[in-house]
Write a structure and sequence with these properties.
With about 70 residues, the protein is an alpha+beta fold. It contains 5 helices and 2 strands. The chain has a single domain, classed as lambda repressor-like DNA-binding domains (434 Repressor (Amino-terminal Domain), Orthogonal Bundle). InterPro entries: Cro/C1-type_HTH, Lambda_DNA-bd_dom_sf.
Length: about 70
């Protein structure tokens, strides 16, 4: 199983944005940004692309899959 990791907190700090400001730019709620940052919500492709565009980064530099080891 894969887990979606992200760099939102790091990129927000780089740009001097708080969660509310990023949410406004991405047209989502602040709670959505918080959940994405904590890995508790997987954004739609549209939201992920919007966020990547805000930071002027390729999608894979903002979001990436981390493979989890399967216990067998």
């Amino acid at each position: 199983m894969s887990e979606l990791k992200n760099r939102l907190k790091e990129l927000r700090a780089r740009e001097g944005l708080n969660q509310t400001e990023l949410a406004r730019l991405a047209h989502v709620s602040r709670q959505t940004i918080s959940l994405i940052e904590r890995g508790e919500y997987t954004p739609s492709v549209v939201i992920a692309l919007r966020i990547a565009a805000i930071f002027k980064e390729p999608l894979e530099k903002v979001f990436c899959l981390k493979e989890e080891e399967n216990e067998e």
